[in-house]
């Protein structure tokens, strides 16, 4: 430990440059991870936050909620197999609402289901009771589009006017705010092919006969663009981590080569390989830890100045996971250096340095 920290203190510029590279790499990984999680949450938070782990869709839906259309007799058959409180049929569609008295239009996802069920989101502002036929609650992100509490929105198919009476949070679908309304009004706004329920949310592990039951992960994959976005960003993060491991390994290997003579001297006076290896690992872990603290601070600072509309989500768990990954790859990245330390011959090293 003493040797490792003493060398870091003496060679500030050399190890400082390595630290800067590690700060930039970990900063990039955390930023991209935050954007990936933000996009994921922004496209599917209404499903992610929904207190249902399983869903029933029509057989031909291929896991896609909006494509699913369930006949009334099929829904009745399913509901007969479970307790009433454990299964909630739901209508869904994407639409564009127009603000009353204005030309402003808002793209939304409309959800409609039985009120006060287990899938009902928490209202953080406004009315908390059951909705009347002309009332809706919306995700608070709709405020960014100029819609406030008490505003009226017109549904284009029926020309029916709805009043915004409450706001929820974390209720997005395909990057659009979710608007919830009373299911009794659904027939008046739905197209002929949208009269059927889209999905049944389940809050039970009971086996359902004559129905296609899918888990939440499969439903999330069926949300337009969700799987593709996550695949692309995950690949970028994976490449950054691989690049970080290679760079860390190369830097420590080059630094170790430069001090072959000093290591030979230490070996000649009786320093054990285990001590030298421990010093190298301590340097890597210490340097990585300091770099992570700085990069995390930078990420948190950047997060405070990001535009409100930019989806960004970075939890303490995610930060801890990537910090652990970087510490592990910093240790693994020193393997080349460890091998060089172990094979150094004291006499050759000292002689080669004369």
UniProtKB/TrEMBL annotation:
It is a multi-pass membrane protein. The keyword Cell membrane applies. It is found in: Cell membrane. Keywords: Cell membrane, Membrane, Transmembrane, Transmembrane helix, Transport. Residues 235-345 form the ABC3 transporter permease C-terminal domain. Signal peptide: none annotated. The keyword Transport applies. Its main location: membrane. The chain crosses the membrane at residues 15-36, 233-255, 275-302, 322-342. Belongs to the ABC-4 integral membrane protein family. HrtB subfamily. The complex is composed of two ATP-binding proteins (HrtA), two transmembrane proteins (HrtB) and a solute-binding protein. Part of the ABC transporter complex hrt involved in hemin import. Responsible for the translocation of the substrate across the membrane. This is Putative hemin transport system permease protein HrtB. It comes from Bacillus bruguierae.
